[in-house]
Amino acid sequence: MSAGSVPLAAPDRPVNGVALAIVILLFVLVAVLGFFAARWRRGEATGLHSLDEWGLGGRGFGTWVTWFLLGGDLYTAYTFVAVPAAMWATGAVTGFFAVPYTIVLYPIVFLLMSRLWSVSHRHGFVTPADFIGGRYGSRALTLAVAVTGIVATMPYIALQLVGIKAVLTVLGVGSAGNVLLTDLPLILAFVVLAAYTYTSGLRAPALIAVVKDLLIYLAVIVAVIYLPIKFGGWGNIFDSAETKMGTVNPATGKPTGIFIPGAASYSAYWTLALGSALALFMYPHSITGVLATKSRNTIRRNAAVLPLYSLMLGFLALLGYAAIYAGTKPIDLNGAVNPQLVVPQLFLDYFPAWFAGIALAAIAIGALVPAAIMSIAAANLFTRNIYRDLVRPEATPRQEAQVSKIASLVVKFGALIFVIAMDQSAAINMQLLGGIWILQTFPAIVGGLYTRWFHRWALFGGWAAGIIYGTVAAYNVVNPVTKANFGGSIAAIPGTNIQVYIAVVAFAINLIVAAILSLLFRAIKLPDGQDITRASDYGADENDPKVAQIQRELPIAEPGGPTY
Amino acid sequence: MSSPDVPTRGPARSGPYIITGILLGIAIVVPLFVPAYSVDEPRLAGMPFFYWYQMSWIPITSALVGISFWIVSREDRRRREAVRGVTSPEEEP
Questions:
Q1: Number of H helices and number of E strands within chain B?
Q2: B41 at the A interface (CB within 8 A)?
Q3: What is the three-class DSSP state of A262?
Q4: Is A311 in a helix, a strand, or coil?
Q5: Does residue B6 fall inside a structural domain?
Q6: In chain B, what residues touch A274 (CB-CB under 8 Å)?
């Protein structure tokens, strides 16, 4: 044995030929679909040469397409890999909170998103920061929201790559010895993704999402019926999970995980669910999905039918427990235990190669859909709120589309370099921070949908306070095993020992600061920005005239009337 | 001189919005009230209460949001018809 030449004794993972062939076949099919999407429902007059067409798919997706698109957008490959991984590793609080999270999400979406749709439709807003600019007339606040969105999205894209990587690893592709060889399939997959996103825009992930979602439903339904039968019922699965979570971990001297949360974990559990639910639709890629819909009510109708994905996610989470019973060994290329390989490995161990191939392909393709939408959303933010607002105010729609296409490439390759060059945990830490940061745009965006009571500079101050607290608090969480910073997203409320999700405390600080500063700034009569929206904009539907049209007909229109 | 803010919808009746608010409030608060369900027994097909209870709230929430959609879209249609009935004769010169 030459221990010198191969530094880390990689377990010999044989390449699973049949499964790999299925994955490649489905991947090629999806790539063809992605390029074909450019011709789908194409606007006759302009082609894809505007952000409305390239970046929002023509703003015409109906209920069905939106269901698949948002399903593929919100329930990402990383979710499919990370949630069962968390269940497998530490149990309910870190993993199963995803279920209440994706339950309370939809009433919140129902309440907020149709107002955002209406005002954006009226004014042609493409990004959340566009709305902030129109509502508050504040360049600083617009920029804050845009930059927060871009920075929070980047690591999210990187994590989609982590999802693809997990699939490739269990398939036996790549080796620990050669960095280039390990990442070559990943690079190849991403170049193809970048190419069809560039040519087809949001239409590509919309079409691909249909294929991906059908595959993932098939995989999960079969696994959830077959595995419990094979393992002698859910009772056995849960009993083995309970035993594992109760076992004391020698590294920390505490139980491995939490099977059913005790009183000490209640606040962590529900704040994780609520904070994540409030944050999710502040992410630019979620808002892109909302603004791409056809009418005001499309998103509301979807809020009633999207929970089907939550049900699937819940069962998928339980597969993490099934893997405990099955004794799945998620060994990475370098010989270390990597919980993220648990579900791919489970499929490979217990299903025929061709079916495992379908399930793994579903996860890998599942990474492409959100990665495409996220890169488009980040590119739109850059184009509208940095390039147009700061560099070239007179940019034409055609130029905007061109800049956005190029920006989407830059964003994707940035994420690729992130994953290849840096440690995987860097992406995970950044994503954790991203969730905390993006929630800090909530007061400005959601507050703005209902009221102009908050002063624009007060919102900016609240945003800054929330970001600073959240970052510091997250840094101070130390992983009990590795002693590294950014060890988790739970910390005590300052001055107490009630453990909660950091983002929620940061959000509370943000709101308090924004409210106090609003009173102060109004008292000293600090100028507030111009509001170009009107009360009627927030209830407008697809057939109501857009602002551009109103201004043509009533040329002396003076925006900024009283809003309620 | 400024153009009037032409309303897109007629005035709201509060009833439908209050009912919707209650339904959606239930769908948000109840699934987050952990003390009510963080127990093992009774199990359903081997699944502890903690797990199957939360899973069962997925279809319940879906139904609550669905009912809310039905109520709000009916009210929305009424408000749009109300405003169209009043303003359309004036808009036509």
A1: 2, 0
A2: no
A3: coil
A4: helix
A5: no
A6: 32
Domain extents for chain A?
17-530
Mutate to test the interface with B, among A234, A239, A281, A533 (most CBs of B within 10 A): A234
- Which structural domain, as residue segments, surrounds residue B73? 14-79
pLDDT of residue B81: 85
**Distance between CA atoms of residues A170 and A173, nearest Å:** 7
- Tell me which of B87 and A402 has the higher pLDDT: A402
- A17-530, CATH topology level: Sodium/glucose cotransporter (1.20.1730)
Q: Is it the case that residue A273 has pLDDT exceeding 70?
A: yes
Q: Are B69 and A305 in contact (CB under 8 A)?
A: no
What is the structure's pLDDT at A551? Answer: 63
- Number of structural domains (chain B) is 1
Q: Does B85 touch chain A if contact means CB atoms closer than 8 Å?
A: no
Instruction: Tell me the pLDDT of chain B averaged across its residues.
Output: 84
Interface test with B, best of A67, A83, A108, A110 (most B CBs within 10 A): A110
Residue B80 clears pLDDT 60, i.e. is over it:
yes
- Answer for the pair A543, A498: CB distance below 8 angstroms, yes or no: no
**HSE toward the beta carbon, residue B85, CA cutoff 13 A:** 8
Instruction: Report the mean per-residue pLDDT for chain A.
Output: 86
- Residue B5 counted as domain residue: no
The strand pairing partners of A293, in sequence order, are A61
From A37's Cα to the closest Cα of chain B, the distance in A is 31
Lowest average pLDDT, out of A417-426, A525-534, B45-54, B56-65, goes to A417-426
Q: How confident is the model at residue A512 (pLDDT cuts 50, 70, 90)?
A: very high
CB contact under 8 Å between A310 and B45, yes or no, is no
Q: Quick one: average pLDDT of A119-145?
A: 92
Q: ipTM of the assembly? A: 0.87
Q: Do B34 and A261 touch (CB under 8 A)?
A: yes
**CA-nearest residue of chain B to A105?**
B28
> What pairs with residue A258 in β-bridges?
A91
Mean pLDDT in residue range A479-505: 85
